[in-house]
Each structure stands twice: as C-alpha cells, then as structure tokens.
Model the fold of this input.
Amino acid sequence: MSVDCHRYKPYSTSIKLVEYIWSDAKGVPRSKSRVLSGDVKNFPIWNFDGSSTGQAETLKSEVWLVPKAVYQDPFTDHPNAYLTLCETYEPSNEPHETNTRAQARQLHEAVKEKDDPWFGIEQEFFLMDSLTGRPLGFPSNPLQQPRAQGPFYCGVGEGNALGRRIVTEAYLACIKAGIKVCGMNGEVAPGQWEIQVGPLPGVEAADDIIMLRYVLHRLSEGTGVYVDFGAKPVADYNGSGAHTNFSTKAIRDETSGRDGIEAALKALEKRHKHHLQLYSGRNNDNALRLTGNHETSDPKKFSYGVGARDASVRIPSQVHEKGYGYLEDRRPSSSCDPYLVVTALMETVCSID
Ligand code: ADP
Ligand code: MN
Ligand code: MN
Ligand code: MN
Done:
C-alpha cells in the first residue's frame, strides 16, 4: 500500500491575520478578524453591520471600515498577525457621524507645520468584579465598604494592588503591539489603575488610547473581571479621568516657553465651557466626577496652578521651574472621546492659518 498524504496542510505563516478595530456608537471598541495576504500599509476597506452597533438602520446597514493605523497583534504567536485601527465611513464616502477621528486628523494637518502639537494622555480605569459589579477590593455585600482610600495609590502587595496581573499584562501587550505606553501606576481608589500613553503628535495619542482600551477589554475576557472606564463607578471614592498633557513647539522651546504657556492658559480660560462639553464623557459622566472634591476642580470656573491637583490645568512644578515643557489639562473624563479632546486643545491652543 502507498502513502498518499495529499491533504497535508502545514501551518501557514505566509498569510496575514488582521483584526479590524473601530469605535461603536457609544465609543466602545468593536473588532472582527479576517485572513489577508496583501501589504501591511494597504489593507483593504471592509464593512460591518452598523445596525448591530447603533451606527445604522437595518435597511441601510453597511458602514465602511477604512484602516488608518497598524499595530502588531500581541495576543498570538503567529508572526504575521496585526491589529488595524479603522475610521468609519458611509458608503457615500462621508465620514460616519461617530467618526470623530477624521476631523481631528484634518485639524492636525492644518496646525502641525507651525505648532506641532504633542499629547500624552493618562487613562484611569477601574477593574470590576463581574459577580458583584463592584471594584476589586469591595466586599460582595453592597452594604459593606472596603478599607478607606490611602494604601492603594502606587500600592504594593496583597490587598493594596488589586488586579495588578491584568494591568501588567495589558501594559506589556501594548509594548509588544507598538502602542506607545509610557508608564502605569495603582490609583487612589481600590481596584483603580492608570496607564499613560505619549507623548505623541496630534491624533496618534488618541489612537493609542483607543488601542489601550481595546487591549484592556481583550485581556479581561474570561477573567471574571471587567474594565470600567466610567468617570464615577462608585460614589464617595475617587473618580477616573483622562488627564491630557499637551505642548506646542512654542511651549517646548526654552526661549518661548513661558510666553507660550501664558498664551495657552489665557486661550483655555476663554473657552472653558466648550472644553467641558467636549470632555464630558459617555452619558455625561464627568459631571459626577468634577465636583471640586477628590482631587478634581470646580467645573464652574477655569483655574490653573503650579503643582495643583484641584485646578482645571496643572503646570507641573518642574515645567514651572525650567520655564518650558507642557501643561496638564485635568478636566477630561476617563470615558472621553480622545479625538474630541485633542480637537478642542488644537482649536484653542494652536493657530490655524
Ligand atoms: P502625573 O504626574 O500627572 O501623574 P504622569 O507621569 O502620569 O503624570 O503622565 C505624564 C504624561 O505627560 C504622560 O502621558 C506623558 O506622555 C506626557 N508628556 C510628557 N511630556 C510631554 C510633552 N512635552 N508634551 C505632551 N505630553 C507630554
Ligand atoms: Mn498620572
Ligand atoms: Mn492619575
Ligand atoms: Mn495627571
């Protein structure tokens, strides 16, 4: 008898596995995968059923996915696996109404030559127990509260650093993927954490925040823990923000730094209300966080200060000392649309020719 192994199909490393990622109507990441063979810089336009994501009617359900940034897929050992962040479009070629990236990208194009704005965003979030719906460290009995805040900020050890494994795994996955994270720390409330991205020019910091959120959601799957990006998941404890650090050429420059910082603060003061609207987060959840308590500012008035954690904008003390560097806008909600945040800052702080 002869051997006839004609159905032998070796594991193929020549194909590409590509996960298309986009934001749904609520700003929550969605993704679907396909097998491709083309060039990494030229993945094809694809589409999805917008009627299942709150982005279209059943009768006209198609929304287009246009790849805009490519990352390595950190979740598999396959050598040609990628994540691609997409913008959404109507079949008529118009950006979908939920595609806030398109506008931010165009604005960045208009200001980058003169101002070259950079952003670094600090994403705060809670890890929640799926069974209780409360953050890690909270007793399952809803009438009982955990230990008071104190040991959790930059906390170390059992009972202080709650859920570090998931956060560290996400941090390392981001580095593997090419998402530009630049640090992480335990936050003030139990089960609360922060990962920072940047500094990156224009929309790229916002892209990397969407990707960071995606990675955290992916790594929570099957763990019994979910990630809550809401600004105030638990009353009476610190809420979550997305402090947005920014600079322009002028602000980063040794000679023009002080003038650049002063001009930016003046411009920001005039448009405080507009910024709060664009920073408001999902379901306007920032209103619950920005109270003037728990290291937040009073939303009724614009304020700034050196090293101040109760101000709208903080001038880091080292920046104040040197006279140049960057400013920290502490107002954006953790659930903000980062494209709207960078759009607001570019509109206000950069000069549009
Ligand atoms: P905090 O003291 O507020 O907790 P972090 O260390 O958490 O500050 O975050 C600092 C952020 O500032 C990072 O996201 C980093 O990318 C960003 N950053 C640093 N330098 C600049 C700069 N020149 N322009 C914009 N962002 C910057
Ligand atoms: Mn921080
Ligand atoms: Mn923080
Ligand atoms: Mn901060």
Summary: The chain has nine helices and 13 strands.
